[in-house]
Amino acid sequence: MSVTEQVIQKDLQYSVPVAARPDFVLTRGEGVTLYDAEGKGYTDWVAGIAVNALGYGDKELMDVVGQQMGTGLIHVSGLYHTQAMVELAELLCSISFADKAYFCNSGAEANEGALKFARKRAYVNDQPNKTNVVSFTQAFHGRTLGALSVTPSEKYQKPFKPMVPGAVVGEFNSIESARELIDDDTAAVVVEPIQGEGGINVASAAFLQALRQICDESGAILIFDEIQCGLGRTGELWAHTASGATPDIMTLAKPLAGGLPIGAILVTEEIGAAMSPGDHGSTFSGGAVVTRAAEMVVNRVKSQGFLEHVREVGDYLLERLAEINSPHITDVRGRGLMAGIELDIPPASVVAAGYEEGLLLVSSGSNVIRFVPPLIIEKQHVDELIDKLTLILEGIDAED
Predict the structure, then answer these.
(1) What is the pLDDT of residues 101-120, one digit of tens each?
(2) Number of neighbours of residue 117 by Cβ within 10 angstroms
(3) Structural domains of the chain sorted by starting position, each given as residue range(s) with its CATH number in brackets
C-alpha cells in the first residue's frame, strides 16, 4: 500500500469527517508550489485559505521560529509579560488606526472577542439593552457559535440552532438596509471590506463610509473583519483604507503569522478601556513563537516593494482572468491578490479538474472560484493559471 493510500485510509478511520479532501497527500512545499507523496507539484492558488502570505519554505520565517524555539520560551500563557507579544502589539498599532491589541488563536476567536468587547463597552456605558449585532448577507465570520450567529447562512447555521440571540442581518452594500436596522439597540456592526467565503464581494466605499456615519449616530461599534482580506492581500496593508472609513475594532488572523495559528483584535483606546482583567482570555494567546513569526511577516509585508508587487500581480491576474473566453464565466471581480470568477457551472468540477492540471483551487460562495495565492506569486504563475483554466473550461464544454 502506498503512502497516499495509507494516509487516506487512516484519515477515514480516525478523523472526524468535517472536510472532503482530494485523494492526494501533501508532503512539502517550496515557494508557491506544494508537492504530494507521489512527487507531483501543484501551483497553490489557495495558500491555506489566504494564510501562507510568504508561500512555503521562507528562510527568514523559519529562522525566526527556530531562534525563538531555541530560547525554550514557547508558551507561558497570558499571565506573564513577554517581549515578543508586546512588540507585535506595538507594531500593529503603529501601522493601523488602533491603540491596543489583543491576541488569540484564530479568526473565529478574534470575531468572538470583538463581539464581547462591543457588548462590554455598552455595559460599562450603562446601556444594558444595547446588545444587537448587525451583519450582512453573504458574510462569513467564523464557525464558533457567536461568530456563526452573525454568519447568515442556513447551510452553516441550521444544524446548530438556536443561534446566539441579537443577530440582525442587513443587505450587503445597501445603505438603506443599514439605516433601517442599525439603531439604539445595536451594540456592533460587523462587515468584511471584501467578503471572502461569500463570493469575493467588494464593499463599496460609500457603503463603508455610511456604516461609519450610522454607527457614530447610533453609538454602535463598527467592526471590520479583515481576517481574509487584510494584511496586504488587496495590495494595501488594510482593505478598508481605500474607502476612507475607519473602524473601532478590526479583526485579523489568516496571514498574520505566515501559517502559524494566530488571531488579533485591534481596538481604539475607548474600546480597550472598557475591558478589565478577567473579562476575556485564552490559554494560548500571544505565545512567543507565533508572535515572533507574526512580527517578521508584518515587517516583510510592509517592506519596500512588497505591496507594489501585490498590486502589480493582482492587476495582472484580474486582467488575464477577464481575457478567458468562456461562456461559463459570468463575472470577474476582486482587488489585489483576492480575486474571483463567477461561474454558471458548479465550481467543484473546476476545482477537481485543477488537481489533474497541477493547480490547487478553492470555491467561494455557491458559484465562485476564488484566487488567494501566496503574496509572492509571480506573473509567470498567472500565465500558467490562465492557460490551464482555459483548457479546463474548454474540456467541460466538450463533455457537455
Answers:
(1) 999 999 999 999 999 999 99
(2) 25
(3) 3-57+304-399 (3.90.1150.10), 73-301 (3.40.640.10)
